[in-house]
Amino acid sequence: MTQNRAASIDKYLRTRAITSPWQLAGCQSREFLAAIIIPALDEAESLPKTLLSLEKNPSELLRQTLIIVVVNNRSSVPQEQKYQNQRTLLWLQERPCSDLNLAWVDAASAGFTLPEKDGVGLARKIGFDLALDRLNWADRPVLISLDADTLVDGNYLREIFNHFQVNRCAAVYIPFRHQSGDSRARESAIRNYELYLRSYQFGLDWAGSPYAFISIGSALACSGQAYVAAGGMKRKQAGEDFYFLQQLVKTGDVCQLVGTLVRPAARYSDRVPFGTGRSVEAAVEQHKCLYHFISYSSFQRLKRWLEVIEVSQAMDADILMAKAEKISPILKRFLVESDFCSIWQKLQKQSADARFMPAWHNWFDGLKTRQLLTGLEREMAVTEPPSLVAELLEAGGYPDVTRCSEQLELLERLQGVSAS
Fold first, then answer.
1. Which of 275, 296, 300, 370 has the fewest CB atoms in 10 Å of its CB?
2. Contact yes or no for 279/193 (Cβ under 8 A)
3. What is the pLDDT of residues 312-344, one digit of tens each?
4. Which CATH superfamily groups domain 7-174+215-245?
5. What's the burial of 160, exposed, middle or buried (CB within 10 Å: 0-12/13-18/19+)?
6. Would you place residue 283 in the very low, low, confident or very high pLDDT band (cuts 50, 70, 90)?
7. Mean pLDDT, residues 28-57
8. Segments making up each domain of the chain, as ranges
9. Helices and strands in the chain, H and E counts
């Protein structure tokens, strides 16, 4: 057992970690204060650029940071992706010494490929779980999630280290702005997608939800202790970042980092079944939108519901259901389908006053919030995104912001992008 490592860390490694048959090659040092986990599938061209951007960070922080690249694929992926992964592994083995403590995992060669039902979530989890035994648990080590197509600033590590040294939050989400698209159509598509993401975060924040963050796999970090308390990275083919951050909210505060920026690529991608790459491709190639902006009206109903809950801890569930129906019949139906009355009674029995609202938000989490908003939107008239976002921004105290470019610029500033 590593000295000063809590029993909970060793229990996690025994019972929940996924490491075998995978192992770390490359750097074999230990006692790091941070580890950066980078899953890589068909990233022979982009990974060197990501590592080069990391090399521009302060050398004293790089010496305290382990970088783990998880080269991964399933057996069923196209042959070209397998070939590119083998190129990546060879490059990692032959890479000359640098300022990086670089290790890698071969989850791509025969006998080590990922199970067919798994994907990037398991790749991230393997890297995080293998990193745990290399950390200095006498301090408060940090685990950082990055992607192989993402560039970071020269102060990236400095801001992350500084934040966790002075804040006790469980995790941070890091300001991001996608790299420029390589055509006018792709640039327009990625900025529209960012407007959708940012307006959703703004609406959740305005409504008072503790899940007001954008989940980007290349833009989050957490303490090692919080990682274990949250049960580790989620084993999903996509959306693992959302579910992981949601679980971190249930174990501690999740804060926004300020002062640095990550820049994911704005490219097509078939690596995951949904997300940025799929959305950009559908917008450009099929003139189809795979996502739906949420209206002010739906966020307003969410806000009213959360405010009712805040002052109704002792109220009977039937009375709350009547209040929910006044807010929206859709809200009442959603609660009935979610077995709200039974859940509410259990919360009242099991949670004391100080623990009630955290327990409530553990149940009414980011996923349920999203499901409710999606249901509320079904009764809304189709409205163009600029008008939807303008109405939401006005409710939040920013009137007369009607052009998409102005809306995006404002939201970027509010969400820490321009502060970088």
1. 370
2. yes
3. 999 999 999 999 999 999 999 999 999 999 999
4. Spore Coat Polysaccharide Biosynthesis Protein SpsA; Chain A (3.90.550.10)
5. buried
6. low
7. 97
8. 7-174+215-245, 296-377
9. 18, 10
